[in-house]
Amino acid sequence: MLNQIKGLHHVTSMADDAFTNNQFFTKTLGMRRVKKTVNFDSPDVYHLYYGDEAGTPGTVMTYFPFPQMPRGRAGTGEVGTTVFSVPEGSLGFWRERLSSLGVTGLKEEQTFGEKRLNFAGPDGDGFALVEVRDDPRAPWTDGGVSGDHAIRGFHSAAMRLRDEVATAELLKFMGYEELARKDGVTRLIMPGGNGAGVIDLETMPNLNRAAQGAGSVHHIAFAVDNREKQLEVRKALMDTGYQVTPVIDRDYFWAIYFRTPGGVLFEIATNEPGFNRDEDLAHLGEALKLPQQHKHLRPVLENHLQKLEA
After folding, report:
1. For residue range 133-151, what is the model confidence (pLDDT) as tens digits?
2. How far apart are CA 275 and CA 283, in angstroms?
3. Starting at the edge strand that comes first in sequence, how are the strands of the sheet with 114-120 ordered?
């Protein structure tokens, strides 16, 4: 069993409008945009990152906004719900705030003894807030939400699968432990992790396979401290039979990718070097940052990319 993985690093999804996406995360949810850059493979498309003040691993939601992208179709083989941690007693505030801002899909429930508020993103994305007592992670409070209510980072991610057995075995190999099972959901936790240590596996054998589009999660990333730990994980996964990509430099972290038995794309990402490698902390996410291979496109991209601020 591996011991290098610390929990979630980031979750990357797709959207159809960059302005709407930016407004939702920075204004509605009060998160900080920590990086404004472009898709490595399609530089005419933004890659936007939202998180806490520094973009700490375990807090970062990222998006590829493809203009006029059709909505995805929910199904198996994908992350169905991305869940954020908020302070105990704050769901009433969030229910009123989200309702007043026109957010849809609001539904309160309890899962595994935790109070939870489900809601939909602008593209039908599946989100939830879960009350967590004494989450020590510092919130970003310059986004219009006070520290008494502000998002702390990820709580969990829920994957929809036709059969959870092989994915559960993989996660246990990655260091997760099974906590409980209830109503077709297997909950796994990362002991001693970074605070973003819960994965729920939802078994849905009669659901069709998902079709990706706007509102779909593209991939889910797990955190390791550094490149040395990442290489150890890569070797162990390959020795187990997984087809893992070479290490790829993503400017703010190094990444490897592999497809899981249930169809979900996993990434292992390093905590280094971080989002302040090319901007100081006070100005994260303000300027358009371009990967080295796309810097010559700056005049074209600055003219082409949608403005994010009103």
Report:
1. 999 999 999 999 999 999 9
2. 11
3. 107-111, 114-120, 126-132, 78-87, 153-161, 198-203, 185-189, 177-182
Instruction: Compute the distance between CA of residue 196 and CA of residue 213 in angstroms, rounded to an integer.
Output: 25
The one-letter code for the residue type at 77 is: G
Phi and psi (nearest 5°) for 210? -65, 150
CA distance 188 to 201: 8
CATH code, domain with 254: 3.10.180.10
pTM (2 d.p.) = 0.97
Within-domain flag for 2: no
Amino acid of residue 254: W
Residue at 138 is within a domain:
yes
| Residue 310 resides in a domain | no
Say how many domains are in the chain. Answer: 1
Predicted confidence (pLDDT) per residue in 51-104, tens digit: 999 999 999 999 999 999 999 999 999 999 999 999 999 999 999 999 999 999
Domain containing 15 equals 8-304
Q: How far apart are CA 56 and CA 284, in angstroms?
A: 12
Instruction: Kindly report, residue by residue over 17-50, the tens digit of the pLDDT.
Output: 999 999 999 999 999 999 999 999 999 999 999 9
**Which residue has 């100005």 as its token pair?**
283
- In sequence order, the 6+-apart residues with CB closer than 8 A to the CB of 239 are none
Q: β-pairing, 177-182 with 153-161?
A: unpaired
